[in-house]
Amino acid sequence: MPVHNPGRRLMHAVPLRFVQKKVQGFGHRSINANLSLTSMIDFLVVTVVFLLMTFSASGETPVQKGVNLPKAENTLDMIDAPLVAVAGSQVLVDGAPAGNTRAIEESGPPPRMQRIDELYNMLKGKRETWKQARPGKEFPGVVVLQIDQEVPAVVVKSVFQTAAFAGYPNVSFMVNMIPKTDH
């Protein structure tokens, strides 16, 4: 029995060209790539669990910077309505500037309630837009106030009254919910 030099011998007898190229080491990468299904399934499960834990059906509204909301035990879910925020002395409607409260704060001792004209015009415009988009339906007249707990009461009253004059008599206040206690 002859003695051969050591080396690769497997598949050398197959008369196909592509097999010979693979055996000699000149072939290209395989077209089929191996995927690790275990790690993909793990990633998918972690992603689904994360999304389910962070999902909120009530919808969350971002709080304006510089607004520290008051806390309350009895709360309702957020509703779809124009959002009037008072941050410092600035008044915002759905994030757009709608006047300021300096005139009210500087109206002399004691400060007096005043209508905020820019806020009034923006809310009135939103009411007209709503009525044009939904002809024949009754306007709900709901507005949500997002007001810092340090804002003076006269400013809150002025914003409340301006909203009511603009056709929004149903006013809700945005608050931070605290757990209910048994008394």
TrEMBL record:
This is Biopolymer transporter ExbD. The lineage of its organism: Bacteria, Pseudomonadati, Myxococcota, Myxococcia, Myxococcales. It is a single-pass membrane protein; Single-pass type II membrane protein. Coiled coil: none annotated. It is found in: Cell membrane. The keyword Cell membrane applies. Belongs to the ExbD/TolR family. The chain crosses the membrane at residues 31-55. Pfam families: ExbD (PF02472). Its main location: membrane. Keywords: Cell membrane, Membrane, Protein transport, Transmembrane, Transmembrane helix, Transport. It comes from Pendulispora brunnea.
